[in-house]
């Protein structure tokens, strides 16, 4: 069950990431293959069936199986999967002990290794950056169940790198 604030945040995420496709990006099963150093070849085979067109089609059980996603995907994979993980977190953080809620917060970090050559704020659209900032603010506001400390740190970095200096830009 979600509140109207959560429904609004999910709608913001949906709108910002509506047309995002994985294209030739690194998929969920390929992240596990990469994590194995290429030794778990069955993941490469499974990757042929990974969803690439609509991140909404990835169910929560699938997301929970892939905890290494943001460490082993590429920029296209990050952009495709982050809305699914943010939405899952909003809907489930109260009732699940899955680590993916915190891993989602940790991933939205302008200093993440993927953004060394292509800054987060140039890879994502303005509305996508705003949606991620709103998600981090939501995590800060719910730090009894989410890692508000890291969410605050990442939100400060995001604001500094994208000139998000007013609360109105991240208000829900």
Characterize the structure shown.
- This protein is mainly α.
- The protein has one domain (about 5-170).
- The protein is about 55% helix and about 0% strand.
- It contains ten helices and no strands.
- It has helices at about 5-15, 30-35, 40-45, 60-65, 70, 75-90, 100-105, 120-125, 125-140, 150-160.
- Helix 1 (about 5-15) runs antiparallel to helix 6 and helix 1 runs antiparallel to helix 9 (about 125-140).
- The longest helix is centred in the middle third of the chain and has 18 residues, at about 75-90.
- It is globular.
- The model is unreliable at about 165-170 (pLDDT under 50).
Topology:
Elements: H1 4-16, H2 28-35, H3 41-46, H4 60-65, H5 69-72, H6 75-92, H7 100-107, H8 120-123, H9 126-141, H10 148-162
Helix pairs in contact: 1-6, 1-9, 6-7, 9-10
């Amino acid at each position: 069950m979600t509140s109207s604030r959560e429904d609004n945040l999910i709608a913001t995420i949906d709108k910002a990431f509506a047309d995002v496709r994985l294209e030739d990006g690194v998929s969920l099963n390929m992240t596990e293959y990469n994590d194995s150093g290429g030794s778990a070849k069955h993941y490469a085979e499974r990757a042929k069936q990974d969803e690439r067109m609509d991140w909404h089609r990835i169910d929560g059980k699938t997301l929970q199986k892939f905890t290494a996603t943001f460490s082993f995907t590429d920029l296209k994979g990050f952009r495709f999967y982050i809305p699914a993980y943010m939405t899952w977190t909003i809907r489930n953080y109260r009732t699940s002990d899955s680590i993916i809620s915190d891993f989602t917060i940790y991933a939205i970090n302008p200093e993440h290794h993927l953004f060394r050559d292509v800054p987060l704020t140039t890879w994502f659209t303005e509305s996508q950056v705003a949606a991620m900032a709103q998600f981090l603010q939501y995590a800060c506001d719910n730090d009894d169940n989410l890692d508000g400390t890291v969410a605050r740190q990442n939100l400060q970095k995001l604001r500094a790198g994208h000139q998000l200096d007013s609360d109105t830009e991240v208000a829900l």
